[in-house]
């Protein structure tokens, strides 16, 4: 889990506008008006986007690979399912540690930068073998149900915790401190990232018409 958390936090903070140089140049702490409603809505939006992107795909469409080194739609969905629970466990680990509200001023990355960074498809990161899809998924509906069930657990957890508690739990990432709220944003953003990847697969000129 530690290796996965490190890999994905590198992905999050290295992508887009979030990088070590920007963090070092930012002289003020990050502030955000985003509350729990924004976070909960983002989970719903990312699930609905994935559902819209994948429902009704045939087996040929599901398993089509644009190239040998690129993922199929099935592999993208398998990867999402393989990582979401582990990412949730990683975020909970931060919440289980003592709160550190005195470190709030150390958080330089804004929520919007977190979302923009993880969904930036111009940055590529190679997944480890244990979280790389095997292209064996055959039932989109079952996969979406599994993801929805995972989300119910996450949303239930978030519903029971105060936003201030999320903001007061700071963890160190490869490029600087982030709070637990942002760790939970990352989980939903990770789904959004791979939904965009699915759209790239579907846009390939050789993608099966049916």
Automatic annotation (TrEMBL):
Residues 1-20 form the signal peptide. It comes from the Bacteria. Residues 44-198 form the DinB-like domain. The keyword Phosphoprotein does not apply. InterPro entries: DinB-like, DinB/YfiT-like. It comes from Arcticibacter pallidicorallinus. This is DinB family protein. The keyword Aminoacyl-tRNA synthetase does not apply.
């Amino acid at each position: 889990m530690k290796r996965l958390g490190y890999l994905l936090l590198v992905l999050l903070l290295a992508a887009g506008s979030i990088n070590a140089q920007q963090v070092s140049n930012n002289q003020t702490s990050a502030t955000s008006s985003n509350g729990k409603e924004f976070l909960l809505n983002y989970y719903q939006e990312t699930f609905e986007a994935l559902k819209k992107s994948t429902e009704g795909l045939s087996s040929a469409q599901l398993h089509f690979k644009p190239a040998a080194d690129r993922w199929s739609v099935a592999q993208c969905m398998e990867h999402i399912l393989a990582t979401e629970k582990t990412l949730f466990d990683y975020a909970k680990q931060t919440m289980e540690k003592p709160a550190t509200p005195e470190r709030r001023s150390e958080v330089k990355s804004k929520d919007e930068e977190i979302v923009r960074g993880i969904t930036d498809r111009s940055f590529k990161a190679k997944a480890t073998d244990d979280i790389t899809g095997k292209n064996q998924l055959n039932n989109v509906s079952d996969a979406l149900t599994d993801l929805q069930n995972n989300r119910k657990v996450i949303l239930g957890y978030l519903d029971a915790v105060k936003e201030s508690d999320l903001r007061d739990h700071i963890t160190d990432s490869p490029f600087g401190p982030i709070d637990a709220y942002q760790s939970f944003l990352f989980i939903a953003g990770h789904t959004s990232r791979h939904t965009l990847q699915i759209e790239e697969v579907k846009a390939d000129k050789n993608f099966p018409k049916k």
